[in-house]
Every structure is written in structure tokens, then in C-alpha cells.
Amino acid sequence: MVASLIVGGFLAYMCSFTVRFTEAAVVTTFGQAGPEDVITEPGLRFKWPAPIQTTTVYDTRARFLQTRSETQQTADDRQIIAEAFLTWRVQDPLVFYQRFRGSSGAAARDHYNRAQETLTSILRSAMSEVSRYRLGELFTSQEGGSKLPELERAILDRLRQLPDAGGKDVAQYGVEVLSVGINSVVLPQDTTNEVFNRMSESRKRLAAKAESEGQALANAIRSEAESAAKRIREFARFRADQIRNRGDLEAAPYLTALNAEPQLSAFLLQLDFVRTGLGRRATWIIPSNMISIFGSDAWKSASEGRIPAAGEAVGGPGVEVDQRTGAAGSGR
Length: 332
Description:
The chain is α+β, with helices and mostly antiparallel strands.
């Protein structure tokens, strides 16, 4: 009984297969298959046991393929090291089976590996689209200014060459390329140094421009300040001349009186000297004839209402002035 169940289970395994909703199966009879042998509807199916019929089941979901870093040449003869990837899926299971079956038999994993090798070679060839773009177009400081998305679309279009373009797309392998992207771009050391040098020169130009603009602004401010200072000096000079002229006019009567009485001028100067020079608390001993107001005749003349003359100073060799009392005495 048990043996019958085991044999029955083995025969059921050999004569049936299951297709999921994410899969497609190709059933071959003695190694041959036609369009009617492709099964895409999910469910349980029956077949003749091998080697009469064999089944290859493919997963039709998207698969990821990553390429290695390779050096590419730009339109301005610069070099970049780029890594690209693509996503693909099995579109036509029958064509896919016929293209990649080879000597690997019905193993789907071997078919995937051979398909990835072919797609890698095609993608590497399509990466030559980089040569249509300049380095400055791929790398820019402006937001949204890079043409990397445009390059990715160009590579995808290259993989999906239209029939009227004289080429064949990857559909001839039974696959569909869903997307292409460049996930890494590195500059070689020489290119990196050159880019840094260009950036340095650009920053120097910007700094020189800013310095020039600042110098021009400083010159304008300095010129305006000098002009304002000149106006202020001119106004101050004009105002000083006005005050000086007014003072001269007011002093003219006094100067006329002084010119008429020269001794009055000398007397006033001597009084000013006494007030400013001898205003401190000190004892000065000076000759009596140095200042006429210290002579006895000078005080006598002053008491009579006359201006003492310079020759009226008399007395000993000197006159002592006591700053506390204001009295003059004989010198010591």
C-alpha cells in the first residue's frame, strides 16, 4: 500500500507541474516547443514524463543587473569611471528559451545567467552614449542642470532601438528592459585634479570680481566722504571769515582808540600779563622798570586818571609783588 502511494506520488510529480501567477512555463516535447506550448495562466498542469516532455518555468518579475565600473570618454575628451544598472524581465518565454537554452538544458537558472551575460555586453556597448555629452553637462552646480537623466534615457533608447533605426532591440532575446540608471560616477585622479584646479580658478575669478566690486564701492564711499569733508571745510571757512569780519568790524572802534593812545594799549597788555602770568600763588621778583604799572609814579598817574607812561617806572633794582595782597614792594 505504501509502495503504491510512493509510486503514485512519484508519477504525479513526473506528470504534473504548477504555474504561479508570477511565472510562465515552456513545455517541450522531445526538445521542441511552439507558441501553444507556452503556459502563462496559473494553476496545476499535466504533461508526459521526461524525457518525452520537459518543463522550464520562468519567473516573469523584474530582475536587477549591475555592471562593473568602466572608464568612459566624454565629448570634451575627459574620462569618467561609471557604473550602470538595468532592470529587466522575461517578456517572451518561448523566445527566451530558444535563445538561451544552449547546452544547459531546461534549467531556468542557467538561462538567467546566460541572459545576464548578454545584457551586460549590450549595456556596456550602450554606455558609449556618454561620448555625446561634455563633462560640464554631466556635473553642474545648478539644481536640475545635470544631463545625467537624459544620458540614462539615451542608453535605454539605445537598448530599445526601433526597427526604423536600422537596429534590433533586446526583444529579440525574449526580454524587456524596464529601466536603466547610472548609480556611480567617479573621476580618475588626473581628471579630479584638473576639476579641482578649474574650481580653484573659478573661485579665484569670483574672489577677484568681489574684491574689484568692493574696491569700487570703497572708492565711491571715500570720494563721497572727501566731498562731504570738503563741503564742511568750505562752510567752516566761510563761517569763520564771517565771524572774523564781524569781529574786525566790532574791534575797529577799539583799535582806533588804541592807535590814538599807544600808551593805553601798552597799559592794557601789562594788565593782561599781570592777570594771566601772575595769577598763581607765587612770589615774583622783577625789575621795577619792566612793567610800568609797578612804579610809584605809575600808581600816582593812575590815581589822577592818567595812563602811566613807560618811563614813569621808578624805584630800586626790583619790585616785589605779593600775590596774596596784591601790593608791590622793593626787591630783595
